[in-house]
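Students often ask what a holo structure prediction actually looks like on paper. The answer is less mysterious than it sounds. You provide the chain, you provide the ligand, and the output is a string of discrete structure tokens encoding the 3D arrangement of the protein together with pantoate.
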Amino acid sequence: MNIFKSVDSIRSSCLACRQNGRTIALVPTMGYLHSGHLSLIEMARKVADIVIVSIYVNPAQFGPGEDLSRYPRDPERDIELCRNSAVDMVFMPDDAEIYLSGHSVFVNEDVMSKVLCGRTRPVHFKGVLTIVAKLFNIIQPDFAVFGQKDAQQARLIQKMVADLNIPVSIILAPIVRDVDGLALSSRNVYLSAEERERALAIHRALFSALALYRSGERDTGKLKNHVLNIIEHSQPNLIDYIEILDNERFVDVKTITSTALLAVAVKYGKTRLIDNISLSPAEGME
Ligand code: PAF
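The corresponding structure tokens follow.
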């Protein structure tokens, strides 16, 4: 496994791969890898000859007062995990390599980035789309794999690729949960044992709403109230949102007639957790 720090060096290696007719799958990450990331790597391995993992904590996607300075990092462990997962290349640039002095061009999405997390994190998706576009330009992968846990991020990346004609296939991987049901996230490390216990209400609420949906409930007001009641019981420090949106356009729906996304963002202590579940007609048939 080769580790690259510079844009030029990974570019030439990727070019050589392409010239040899080999396909490339990219798994963009901010490091502190967990089993969720490993499932993305596994998926990448299934579709392409070469798997590249990028590890870069992108400052542009953190707003003022967010957790950039304390974001968990363990590059040595990440490298070991990549090696053990048969990753071919790791791209670990530093800030100066990615954002040259005077960098002033960003990728912005004007509609779907304004809802859900975009309301409280106004610069977040601009930062995400910019770094992902840069990684696509540097590596020029055939495939890129993202987790459904960050559903809004994944949808925005699909939209960017479509709107800007970027030649890459986006693959979405299902949410990976711990045995207790908590969706895996690098930020779970911030939770105290007591906060983590309370946070399990998120998963309980989503799956309970899914059961209600499967029993025939289509009124999103009732479904959201159901989720709210369960989460409120866990005494969260803040409920940022509980929303049910059309899965494609990310607009509010009152009655579910096609696939909808039930998404929540809740704070326990200082840790903001996001999670989601799909409510689709196919689910209702089960
Ligand atoms: O999901 C993440 O870890 C990040 O938002 C991403 C896609 C690697 C961009 O920095």
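The pocket of pantoate is lined by residues 28-30, 58, 61, 128, 131-132, 150, 153 (CB under 6 Å).
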